[in-house]
Write a structure and sequence with these properties.
Helix content is 38%, strand content 22%. The protein contains 19 helices and 24 strands.
């Protein structure tokens, strides 16, 4: 069969021989490698989440691996010419070390051989259990001899090192820094799929089916087989959707039978661990964009354009928010004051757009950079820190006083002084200010659009943030370039001073909201406790969700933050209504609230699992359904009572 025509290969004897020789050579070199410490191309470091694990309990250890530039390590099944980590543990009495869990790998093809690798720092996680018979204070230092393979695109070197982490039996306490680091590592592990997939052989082809709802997003998917002797690794993988099934077809290899373990990569650092059972696979359906090869670097163009459009429209809607509208109105007033000078209007509009787009891009780049560094953050991450909220509070207060005419602000702060300028400079800084103060808001379309940045590569995610800035700037851009709109603006007159003072009201409300938020952050209050929610709701956690679903009752989960204006509007206008709560009580609905006000890695992961990186997010778990329904970002009482059957 011609691989150039259909992507499948049936005769690969030469490549198979080469792979076997490479693997044999690596194992021989490893067997004769010296046991003493040596310089390695991938530096290992063993760390424990808790250095004082409690007797009868457990902790997690991580073997953090840092490759030198140009080097890579391997997944549990290294592919054609590699192998994963091997450790001979020397554990103290009463300590048991579980198997390593690997993060989602990348597919790397070299010389027609496919490898399953990590080209950047990565960490393998394992559970360590301490027997309840171990006395408190006992030294539990864990050591081992680790063996792995390090490669470049030209050479491979088997490496070995002694790894160790000091622990002693204690109370199981976890330091805050360790918690954040391990949460970041866990976020890159594949999530176990709660249902079995199917697989079958059909001639030279092997076919898989993964049960995934139609709303699940996949970008550059790839199936990594953990069970060896099943697929021809470099062969083309064809992905298609047939209803609630993802169907994968590729060239088979070997004579594996029975159950098969594999990892389905969904996107960057996102994947599912799947166990496949021998069973008939549905026929192929509609081809999935970006799913035509193993490990390609393309993106889902439909997802990209949909997200970009959603970001632009979502940014446009943000202009109606109380924190952004006064700033837009002030610039509109400056146009009216200019007497309709077409050239000046265009210059200022372009500068305003540049300021808004550049600020959105900078915030997006910072967000992506923090995520790449392992931080669990999402959109509006800066508002999860009291210092940022304090700065915004001062700015909102300054703008309010300026709108009221109490004083002009050249001496108060650089941002407002720059925004008060006319011409290009004033337009630019006003656009930047509008984009910055808009970050607490997440309106219709915007949540899903920004959520797409979780699965798109950075170069494709950045334009979506830029689209948000463009959407914010669109009204002012239209006024600057469309004479008909500019001509409809009222002529300069005394009304402008009155209108300017009225604009102080929404900005004053924004300042008040920021002051309350700052007080709650410093005071340590949660959004679900003392922030205006008067109804029965438990704090969200994965364990609380599992417990609630086990009752067989409907479960309503909502993620909120005190700085999220859309969240507060939905809580006051829909969730906290008497009719809704009566319907919930009648149906026995269990309500869980996730507070993201001060940031929470567990909530950030939960948002990411549903394709979001901002709040609000509303989930409805109906009894007997395995997947939740994602509700709209604008709630109505009727929508909630309908779900409850009221």
């Amino acid at each position: 069969m011609d691989r150039a025509k259909d992507g499948f290969v049936t005769d690969r004897s030469a490549s198979a021989t080469a792979r076997a020789l490479l693997a044999l050579l690596a194992l021989v070199l490893l067997a004769f490698a010296p046991a003493q410490a040596q310089t390695t191309h991938i530096a290992p470091r063993l760390v424990a989440e808790s250095v004082v694990p409690s007797p009868g309990g457990a902790t997690t250890i991580a073997l953090a691996m840092t490759p030198e530039k140009g080097w890579h390590g391997y997944w549990s099944n290294g592919g054609d010419a590699g192998f994963g980590m091997q450790v001979e543990w020397n554990a103290p009495p009463g300590v048991t070390v579980g198997a390593f869990r690997y993060p989602v790998p990348e597919a790397l093809t070299l010389f027609e051989l496919m490898n399953h690798v990590y080209e950047h720092p990565y960490a393998l996680l394992a559970d360590v259990r301490v027997d309840k018979s171990v006395a408190p204070g006992t030294d539990l230092t864990l050591t081992g001899i680790a063996n792995w393979l390090a490669c470049t695109d030209k050479i491979c070197v088997p490496e070995k090192a002694v790894i160790s982490v000091a622990m002693k039996a204690g109370d199981g306490a976890i330091a805050a820094g360790a918690q954040r680091q391990f949460d970041a590592w866990r976020a890159k592990l594949p999530q176990p799929l709660d249902r079995a997939g199917r697989w079958e052989r059909r001639g030279a082809m092997v076919r898989f089916a993964v049960p995934l709802p139609e709303g699940t997003s996949l970008t550059t998917p790839h199936l990594f087989a953990a069970t060896q002797g099943v697929v021809d690794y470099p062969a083309m993988q064809r992905f298609s959707r047939n209803g609630d099934w993802i169907v994968i077809e590729t060239a088979g290899k070997g004579n594996a039978q029975g159950e098969i373990d594999a990892l389905l990569k969904l996107g960057q650092d996102r994947g599912l661990s799947v166990r496949f059972v021998p069973r008939a696979v549905p026929s192929a359906g509609k081809a999935i964009a970006g799913g035509g090869s193993g490990g390609g670097a393309g993106i889902d163009l439909a997802l990209f354009w949909t997200a970009l459009g959603g970001a632009i429209v979502g940014g446009l809607i943000l202009n109606l928010m109380p924190c952004v509208f006064p700033i837009l109105s002030l610039k509109a007033l400056s146009l009216a004051r200019s007497g309709g000078d077409a050239r000046a209007a265009k210059v200022e509009a372009v500068a305003y757009t540049a300021g808004a787009v550049l600020t959105a891009l900078l915030l997006g780049a910072l967000l992506l950079g923090l995520r790449a560094a392992g931080e669990q953050v999402g959109w509006a991450f800066q508002l999860q820190h009291p210092a940022s909220v304090f700065v915004l509070l001062l700015l909102a207060l300054a703008i309010t006083l300026n709108l009221l005419g109490v004083f002009e602000l050249p001496s108060f702060g650089g941002g407002q002084r720059l925004a008060n300028q006319s011409g290009a400079a004033g337009g630019f800084w006003t656009g930047a200010l509008a984009a910055f103060v808009a970050t607490p808001c997440s309106g219709p379309l915007l949540g899903a659009a920004l959520g797409a940045t979780l699965v798109l590569p950075a170069w494709a995610a950045l334009p979506i943030f830029g689209g948000l800035g463009l959407g914010i700037a669109l009204p002012f851009l239209a006024v600057g370039f469309v004479p008909a709109l500019r001509n409809r603006m009222p002529k300069p007159g005394p009304w402008m001073a009155t209108f300017r003072k009225w604009m102080a009201l929404p900005m004053a409300l924004t300042a008040l909201a920021l002051a309350v938020l700052l007080w709650r952050q410093v005071d340590g209050r949660e959004a679900g406790h003392g922030a205006g929610i008067e109804f029965s709701a438990d704090r969200y956690s994965a364990a609380a969700l599992a417990k609630a679903r086990a009752t067989g009752k409907p479960v309503f989960v909502f993620f909120t933050a005190d700085w999220c204006l859309s969240c507060k509007a939905n809580e006051a206008g829909a969730i906290n209504r008497e009719a809704v709560q009566d319907a919930f009580d009648k149906a026995g609905v269990v309500t869980l609230v996730g507070d993201w006000t001060n940031g929470d890695p567990a909530i950030t992961r939960a948002l990411a699992e549903h394709g979001r990186n901002s709040v609000p997010l509303y989930l409805w778990y109906a009894p007997g359904k395995s997947e939740p329904e994602i509700l709209p970002q604008i709630l109505t009482p009727g929508l909630l009572t309908d779900r409850a059957g009221g």
